[in-house]
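Lecture notes, continued. The same structure-token format from the folding unit now serves as the input rather than the output. Read the line below as a description of shape only.
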């Protein structure tokens, strides 16, 4: 993500910032953001002190927004949020919309990283409105870049990829090379998250020479981290080890803690896969320490999993068991938090759409503003749709399904509400033998068949992978859930045509019904999931009730 400030290529800089006037110090701190965040922090603090001595509230706010960005890049999130907050106060006191937009953008970045995606979206939309009002097209595109990064963190990687591609194009048209560089780095992250490690690696190798030439150290560290991990995932272990070892010193030097942690984790796993467990251990232990210090839960989970394997190999069975238990506990916690965050994010999106329409009606002063606003409305409508739907099948996604299910259970009164959990049998074989494109085509066809067979008021969702869920409100009889499950099973047993070839699959279906199997969504889902696993263990291709 962009830390709330526009960066530029590095130029020759004085080493004694005290010789610079205040505007020159601000410009230098801005240039150093992705070149040397630690030095940028020192310059921004000096500019802050001088602005306070001069009683210059506007430049104090500008210095604080830059300070916040440097702290964000160094994973000092609490201090970064405080700096952005001081910048926001100064901007509002001075009536400077451009500075207010940058401060809100920075706050959005921080709280998004801390998991408050709904709050982040609110700040990003407010920042976008202010940027439009101030005629700051770069600010608007910067916000779009950060919204796309939120999609990435929520796992909506295909949507994030499309948005980042747009940012790359528009930033190029605006001549903003730093924003374009930031968006290209995010593109690489999107490809990696989508499992396209070859494309992520190709993009990293393409960007690295330019980043080195321009001395954009922060972008370079991120790029090197993903380059090393992509090599690891592609099985190029020697190349991964060499790339990561050469990249570690720069990450250490600029204090880029998040991606330093990622490098250490990837290097530890590389050593582990090469059978060098004694070399793997210290890197994984340090990765775990950094992840815990900076609340990087995903990397903490992965480090615990790898450490469990290392300690088992070294004969430390109590340590291996302890790490494995912590890994599984954190995995469950992350899953629950992700579902909750997506639900809150979707709810906030719907609420903010209404507020945005009301606010924008008062701001349609010129035809240019009207055109910009229309484009922004389209962007937000598309983002709202993507937040609720699976990009592959067009079905509801996990967060939207949960939100609708919880509302349905609250107002269901005396009528039963059914929940089906379907896991495809034989999908992995299709995916492995015919390829991912064939697997994606099959998933789309499965989704279409399920949607065609249920009632209008029923909701079909794809939480992920080869799993599907169906919400059945207002059932006449609890037994209807099982009957519908059998009907869907029969529909899926009919052959599919994939790449011109007949393909046969089946499904394991678990059914749960409220109120008899539980009144809360989480309980109902758990009971349906357990019933589905009983089908799996008893031969598959069947339906069981909770």
């Amino acid at each position: 993500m962009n830390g709330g400030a526009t960066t530029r290529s590095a130029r020759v800089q004085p080493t004694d910032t005290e010789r610079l006037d205040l505007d020159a110090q601000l410009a230098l701190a801005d240039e150093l953001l992705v070149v040397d965040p630690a030095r940028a922090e020192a310059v921004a603090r000096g500019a802050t002190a001088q602005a306070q001595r001069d009683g210059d509230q506007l430049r104090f706010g500008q210095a604080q927004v830059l300070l916040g960005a440097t702290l964000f890049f160094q994973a000092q999130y609490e201090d970064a949020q405080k700096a952005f907050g001081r910048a926001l106060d100064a901007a509002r006191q001075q009536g400077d919309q451009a500075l207010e937009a940058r401060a809100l953008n920075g706050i959005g970045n921080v709280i998004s990283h801390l998991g408050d995606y709904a709050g982040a979206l609110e700040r990003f939309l407010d920042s976008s409105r202010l940027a439009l009002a101030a005629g700051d097209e770069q600010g608007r595109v910067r916000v779009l870049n950060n919204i796309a990064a939120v999609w990435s963190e929520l796992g909506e990687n295909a949507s994030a990829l499309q948005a980042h591609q747009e940012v790359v194009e528009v930033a190029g048209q605006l001549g903003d090379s730093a924003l374009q560089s930031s968006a290209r780095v995010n593109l690489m992250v999107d490809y990696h998250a989508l499992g396209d490690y070859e494309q992520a690696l190709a993009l990293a190798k393409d960007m690295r020479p330019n980043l080195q030439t321009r001395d954009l150290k922060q972008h370079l560290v991120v790029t090197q981290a993903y380059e090393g991990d992509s090599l690891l995932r592609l099985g190029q272990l020697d190349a991964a080890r060499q790339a990561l070892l050469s990249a570690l010193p720069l990450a250490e030097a600029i204090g880029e803690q998040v991606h330093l942690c990622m490098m250490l984790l990837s290097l530890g796993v590389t050593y582990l896969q090469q059978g060098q467990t004694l070399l793997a251990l210290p890197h994984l232990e340090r990765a775990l320490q950094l992840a815990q210090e900076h609340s990087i839960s995903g990397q903490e989970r992965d480090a615990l999993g790898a450490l469990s394997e290392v300690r088992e190999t070294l004969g430390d069975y109590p340590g291996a068991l302890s790490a494995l238990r912590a890994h599984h506990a954190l995995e469950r916690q992350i899953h629950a938090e992700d579902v909750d965050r997506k639900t809150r994010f979707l709810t906030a999106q719907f609420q903010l759409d209404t507020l945005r329409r009301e606010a924008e009606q008062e701001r349609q002063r010129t035809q240019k503003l009207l055109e910009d606003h229309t484009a922004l409305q389209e962007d937000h409508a598309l983002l709202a749709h993507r937040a609720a739907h699976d990009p592959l099948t067009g079905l509801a996604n996990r967060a939207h399904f949960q939100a609708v299910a919880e509302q349905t259970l609250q107002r269901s009164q005396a009528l039963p509400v059914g929940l089906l959990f379907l896991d495809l049998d034989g999908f992995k074989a299709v995916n492995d033998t015919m390829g991912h494109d064939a697997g994606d085509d099959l998933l789309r066809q499965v989704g279409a068949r399920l949607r065609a067979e249920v009632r209008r008021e029923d909701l079909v969702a794809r939480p992920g992978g080869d799993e599907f869920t169906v919400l059945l409100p207002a059932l006449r009889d609890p037994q209807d859930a099982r009957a519908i499950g059998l009907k869907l099973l029969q529909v899926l047993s009919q052959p599919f045509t994939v790449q011109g070839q007949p393909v046969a699959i089946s499904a394991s279906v678990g059914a749960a019904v409220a109120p008899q199997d539980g009144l809360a969504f989480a309980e109902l889902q758990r009971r349906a999931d357990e019933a589905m696993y009983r089908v799996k263990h008893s031969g598959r291709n069947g339906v069981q009730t909770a």
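Point for the exam: The domain at 19-255 is CATH 1.25.40.10 (Serine Threonine Protein Phosphatase 5, Tetratricopeptide repeat).
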